[in-house]
Amino acid sequence: MSSYNRSVSFKQRAASSPRFSRKTWVSNLFCALIVVGSIVSFFFVIGCGYLYVLPNLTHSFHDREDRFSNFSVSDDTCDVFDGNWVLDDSYPLYNASECPFVEQGFNCLDNGRTDNDYIKWRWKPKNCVIPRVNVQRVLEMLRNKRVVFVGDSMSRTQWESLICLLMTGLEDKSTVYEVNGNKITKQIRFLGVRFSSFNFTIEFYRSVFLVQHYWAPKHGPRRVRSTLKLDKLDDISKEWIDSDVLIFNSGQWWVPGKLFGMGCYFQVGNSLKLGMQITSAFRTAINTWASWVDRKINPKRTRVFFRTFEPSHWRNLTLRQCNVTKFPLLEARGKDGSQFSDTVFKVVNNMSVPVTVLHITPMSAFRSDAHVGTWSDKPSLSDCSHWCLPGVPDIWNELVISYLLGSNEPETMSASSGFNNL
Ligand SMILES: *[C@@H]1O[C@H](CO)[C@@H](O)[C@H](O)[C@H]1NC(C)=O
Ligand SMILES: *[C@@H]1O[C@H](CO)[C@@H](O)[C@H](O)[C@H]1NC(C)=O
Ligand SMILES: *[C@@H]1O[C@H](CO)[C@@H](O)[C@H](O)[C@H]1NC(C)=O
Ligand SMILES: *[C@@H]1O[C@H](CO)[C@@H](O)[C@H](O)[C@H]1NC(C)=O
Ligand SMILES: *[C@@H]1O[C@H](CO)[C@@H](O)[C@H](O)[C@H]1NC(C)=O
Ligand SMILES: *[C@@H]1O[C@H](CO)[C@@H](O)[C@H](O)[C@H]1NC(C)=O
């Protein structure tokens, strides 16, 4: 009976399988309700929808039928991160111009982009389907909860995307507000958006390295202006503990220009590690993160995700040149892998708290069409790192949501999430 739920369950290839606690897989009455409810609502939403497939971008004959009829895929055959992008006219999931939480720099259509195929792509795993988001159900599930995003601007984009997606389910949008009345800015450390009629918050903590960034130690070499304490998690980490959903990312800032170029070097304990390679520093930092999670996070309460590296599509990063394409790439061109993502898998495999790795690197690698390019708040500079909204980060959130609604969730999530409203 839980084949539907399992169809969205994570299954990474072979050795890199992240761990789930087995007991959360146990089927129960709630699961049954969820399955029946989702299938019913799914058919309702999708049943009369029209979707089609751009033939040269897919490799499966079944794309067309899958979302309508076939839920009988076992988790053994479904890796949700292995699939294709298919055109689907029922996308996008929201209108950025009607959502006050999309920052202007990501609202490409409003910033002058005229082609709009890029907002209509849905991710289709090879052997299963990602269910269409049922916003009302997600709002109910999140009642009284705290969702926390931690990371860099890519995390902020995903935070914005989730808020906008959920706001489409509300009649009265004025019930949603930033708790301190703050505007979204690039440097801000904390943003918390409250859905007051559902008593939950979606929060963002800016922590681009996850570990502590600190002033340079005295008497160090002059080029050292600051250090990253690789063995110490960011000071604001205490704010992340008491949450129900915790979604991390890091990667974009681990480049020479943003580290050594800014006079930032690595430190472990009291010793400066001037010659340390970035990849090995990243591994040390992620291990620090992992032991923090294992020590501080209660897996019965908090569902932890780590989103892997977001590929960029620069033609020449040094010259900041890039061309946003009209369509997704047909081949990943080597961007489907990343050392950062590999490190995350290795570390997560050795943790005691279950962490779901959102392996979005390969799927996003095709999306050279989805970056902000020159349709940002700085049109003079092209940008092939950040993503337009609506767009690719919405799909990352669809995955998060399918996990949260799936069978492998902490018990507290289903116990108090209002599924009886189905
Ligand atoms: C679902 O699809 C798979 C392959 O795509 C097929 O083997 C199976 O028979 C289908 N099941 C149903 C119930 O249609
Ligand atoms: C989004 O909303 C704005 C303002 O309501 C409207 O002008 C625009 O046409 C909408 N865009 C799309 C793609 O629906
Ligand atoms: C809102 O949620 C918090 C937990 O996040 C809970 O303690 C509080 O009682 C809830 N308030 C209402 C009015 O339900
Ligand atoms: C980018 O441009 C710089 C300056 O012209 C050049 O030195 C470098 O080789 C280029 N990089 C790539 C990847 O083409
Ligand atoms: C990419 O954009 C540059 C300007 O940034 C332009 O000169 C070039 O022709 C474009 N290349 C392609 C393949 O469209
Ligand atoms: C896994 O964790 C154990 C103890 O927590 C440690 O001794 C071991 O080195 C770790 N293995 C890897 C591959 O990181």
Automatic annotation (TrEMBL):
Transmembrane segments: 29-53
Any Pfam family hit: PMR5N
Keyword Lyase on entry: no
Domain Trichome birefringence-like C-terminal, residue spans: 130-402
Start and end residues of each Trichome birefringence-like N-terminal domain: 77-128
Predominant location category: membrane
GO molecular function, one term: O-acetyltransferase activity
Lipid bilayer topology: Single-pass membrane protein
Subcellular location(s) of the protein: Membrane
Top-level taxon of origin: Eukaryota
Keywords, alphabetical: Membrane, Signal-anchor, Transmembrane, Transmembrane helix
PANTHER family the record matches: PROTEIN TRICHOME BEREFRINGENCE-LIKE 7, PROTEIN TRICHOME BIREFRINGENCE-LIKE 9-RELATED
Family: Belongs to the PC-esterase family. TBL subfamily.
Name listed for the protein in its UniProt record: Trichome berefringence-like 7
Organism name: Olea europaea subsp. europaea
